[in-house]
Design goal:
The chain has about 180 residues and is mainly alpha-helical. The chain has 6 helices and 2 strands. The chain has a two-stranded antiparallel sheet with strand order 1-2. The longest helix is centred in the N-terminal third of the chain and has 44 residues. The N and C termini lie far apart (about 70 Å). The model has no long low-confidence stretch (mean pLDDT about 80).
Length: about 180
C-alpha cells in the first residue's frame, strides 16, 4: 500500500520529467528559430535587401520572406508579399473579432487563406533558389514546419538564384525610420 509521501514523490518525479521535456523542446525550438533566421538573413543579404537583420524579429521576418520573392502575382492580382505577409495577420485578427461574422466566417476562412498564401509564397521562394526541389521543400515545410523550414533556409543561405526572380526594387522599408 502506498503512503501519501510515496505518491507525492512519484508525482514530483513525473512533474520534473515534464518540466525537463518542456525546457528541452523550448531550447530546441529557439535554436531552430535562430537557424532559420540566420538562413533568411544570409539570403536577404546576398539579394541586397535592406535591413536583412529583420529576419531575426518575429513577424518582421515575414517582410524578409516576401522581399526574397519580390513582387508576384496571386490569383491574377499583383502583390508585394513583403508588405502583405507581415500586415495580413493583424488585419485578419481585427476582422475576426467582429461578432458572429468574424467568428464564423472571416476568422476560419481568413486563417485558411493566409496559410495558403504563406505556403504559396514559400514555394515560390524555394523555386527561385532550388527549382528542382521546390515541391519537396514545400511539402516538408507544410508537414514539418518547425523543423524543415529552418533546415531548408539554412541550406539555401549560400545558394545563388536559380529561377527567374522579379528584380528586387527596394521600396521604403516600413520598419526603418
Amino acid at each position: 500500500m502506498y503512503e501519501l509521501g510515496d505518491y507525492f514523490g512519484e508525482l514530483a518525479g513525473v512533474f520534473a520529467a515534464f518540466i525537463g521535456l518542456f525546457i528541452f523542446i523550448g531550447l530546441l525550438l529557439l535554436v531552430l528559430y535562430f537557424v532559420q533566421a540566420y538562413g533568411m538573413y544570409k539570403m536577404a543579404k546576398r539579394r541586397g535587401i535592406a535591413s536583412p537583420w529583420l529576419a531575426y524579429i518575429p513577424i518582421a521576418n515575414h517582410y524578409v520572406l516576401g522581399a526574397l520573392l519580390g513582387h508576384t502575382e496571386v490569383l491574377g492580382t499583383r502583390i508585394n508579399p513583403s508588405y502583405v505577409l507581415p500586415i495580413s495577420p493583424f488585419v485578419l485578427y481585427f476582422f475576426a473579432a467582429i461578432p458572429f461574422l468574424g467568428w464564423f466566417f472571416i476568422g476560419p476562412f481568413g486563417s485558411i487563406a493566409y496559410v495558403i498564401l504563406y505556403y504559396v509564397i514559400l514555394y515560390r521562394v524555394y523555386r527561385l533558389y532550388k527549382p528542382e526541389n521546390a515541391v519537396l521543400y514545400t511539402i516538408l515545410s507544410v508537414l514539418f514546419s518547425g523543423i524543415a523550414m529552418p533546415i531548408i533556409f539554412f541550406l539555401l543561405r549560400n545558394t545563388e538564384l536559380a529561377g527567374e526572380a522579379a528584380p528586387f526594387k527596394e521600396e521604403k522599408n516600413p520598419f526603418d525610420n
